[in-house]
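Dear colleague,

Thank you for sharing your sequence with our group. We've completed the structure prediction you requested, and as agreed, I am returning the results in plain text so they can be pasted directly into your records. Please verify that the sequence below matches your submission; if there's any discrepancy, let me know and we will rerun it promptly.
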Amino acid sequence: MHTDNLKVILNQIKSGKLSVEKAIEKLRTLPYEDLGFAKLDHHRHLRQGFPEVIFCQGKTSDQILRIISRFVASGQNVLATRVAKDVAKIVKKKFPKSEYNELARTIAIKQKQVKLSSGIIAIVCAGTSDIPVAEEAAVTADLFGNKVERVYDVGVAGLHRLLDKKDILFAANVIIVIAGMEGALASVVGGLVNCPVIAVPTSIGYGASFGGLAALLAMLNSCSSNVAVMNIDNGFGAGCFASLINRHK
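Please find the predicted structure tokens below.
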């Protein structure tokens, strides 16, 4: 981080030349920390309310450790996604407080309390095979300060299972619906509730599902007007977007 700029701002606040409000505006646009292989955006939480998240797929364990180390040093909460189990063990050894969700393939390090949003994010998934994507969304939403309710294995092959959880659906401010196969669950949920529904297609399904493409197209063509769609298997994106909606409810 460019500490010289930060020191100047702090001195301006102490001398009364700069208000706290103006200082926050300046901090929003301060430069990033350059590690050579990565440029870390320490001030993203000031601009967007959420810290930068580490996408670990394709990174070496050394790169991941160095990035996590810098974020931990800055005092912010840390979230890493798509973390392999062997990498998680390495991170755990260096950061004992890290929490690895094996299903979600996420690492969370909570260093400070986040103001909790009053509304509920319901995370609904069609089948047990969709739970890894659902858990990625749940971990993200939880770390970003939301109350999360999980409703799993309630796909359209047995709609009575979904209707049995209608109290949770009706109480939610926003619902994330995760489904593979034909992706019909998002439209069904959308037709039941009066809140935004974020649909996430998964790559689960037989050959004609084309790795989630069938579910993606079905969700994009939903006739429920309150349904928006994320990319295939993008539980993290759904958790972020749901958090933004919930924050402004």
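Summary note from our side: The chain has a mean pLDDT of 87.

Kind regards,
the structure core
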